[in-house]
Amino acid sequence: MTTTRRQFLRRATQGLGFLAAAAALPRWVGNAQASTLNGYAGSRVAVCVFLLGGNDSNNLIVPVEANAYAAYLDARPTVGLKSTEMDLISPSNIPSSTFGMPRTLSKLRAHFQAGRAAFVCNVGPMVLPLTKADYLAGGLSVPENLFSHSDQQDAWASALANPSSSTVTSDIKVTGWGGRTADKLHMLNTSTPPDYPEVTSFGGKPRFGVGVERKPMVVAPDGTLAFRTVSTPPSDFDLLQQSALADVMTVQDGNVLETAYAGVFTTAQGFSTARAAARDAAWAQLPEVTRLTIDHYFEPSLPPEDTAKWTLHTQLYQVVRDLVAGAMPVNKDGLGLKRQVFSVGFGSFDTHQGEDVDQPKLYEQLDFALDAFQKAMALLETQPAFGANAPQATLFTMSDFNRTLEENGDSGTDHAWGGHAIVLGSRVAGGAFYGTFPNLDLTGSLDGSTDERGRWIPTLSVEQYGWTVASWLGLTSTERDYVFPNLTGYLADAVARNFPTQQRRAKVGFMLD
Known about the structure:
The protein is α/β, with parallel strands linked by helices. Helix content is about 35%, strand content about 10%. The protein has helices at about 5-15, 20-25, 65-75, 105-115, 130-135, 150-160, 170-175, 175-185, 235-250, 255-285, 290-295, 305, 310-325, 355-380, 460-475, 480-485, 485-495, and strands at about 45-50, 60-65, 85-90, 100, 115-125, 200, 215-220, 340-345, 390-400, 420-425, 435, 460. The strands form two sheets. Strands 1, 5, 6, 7, 8, 9, 10, 11 and 12 form a nine-stranded mixed sheet that branches. The chain has a three-stranded antiparallel sheet with strand order 2-4-3.
């Protein structure tokens, strides 16, 4: 059978796995103006953990004051946490208030108690600040297609809750706020090789990492970004296949699209090679005891049959390896990146049924992975190999939406809106809650809920949440509207209508300088 050039390309690029996905994007090269180093000359990294499916954060932090806890249990007699299933925390900025956290998140609780983690309460996609009356009136001020998985994932990833009615340009509508932040951070990264991508995606919501100018490196969850080979080291067949592909790429028949693809594909191969070399060389700069300790952090202590389907810790381990490669100076064979963004994700948190069984398992995986990542970062911050400025990382969560406070008839919960997010890292103003915790009394006026089932109207927007992270990375106030085009209008409306102070502030306040 005769193999055409197109068939060969298809088969060969399949061998590249996720590299092919990255190369299919139009370009990496950008010309957007730079942000600033924001007072920190070392490497700063933001890590987005997307809890796919809609995490029920009503079970993430639970009020234990008698009346509030009674209302909570009344709404969820099956999926609600019993007192024996929680350990207590006391947010430093809410005097005389106590909350419970599930014991499946005991490691995260320890980081909260130590001031390394914080919770951002009742945050979600918004067009303008809303009262219940505004919501019931409908119109353009309400986010489009609420309670839809795909639409609300896009709203979180893009920081644009009204794509159909928004007047922003079409290229902004199809990108994400992580990618648009990279558009502005690009000039801070005088990397080797030049134009190395600021965003690396191991999972989560793909749109988050796509910018107008800058494109993400899309990597398999296990870190793979290379040709699939028959053997290790590559066999003669593997080398022949790669050589043949290189030859084919030079034959473009005068076709503009083929020429463009060949150029981007070749660039992607270059990034793959540079990434692999830097990961190995930079890792080797760390003492062996450091490398082994980090490896140990990411080794679950539970039996393999209990962790066989766990994926988050694998992704975050690969983030650590890429982070080390990026942060290591070029003179020590690293990439010399000052700012990076990573995206990971796992789920499903779509717990319409059996939540009392499924969510604890998901939280157990989340707890292990976040703890391993934070311990690894704490150790890396002590390493002299990075020079005077060790890398800093802030991890933050996003999810489609929260779940209804009221459980359904299948031991589960249904799609809702505003929920609680986690931020974790050495530069987090931890041990505190940010935003407003909702009133859980479903027998009252329900001013904070869309209906009697407990769907919280967010009191913080995704834009406020995202801008707090992006400004820590170095995004300037003059660049804010490019990355978060709805934020100025949201704040102006909050001021004009005298909403609470927190809804009139651009930054939420959970990041230290």
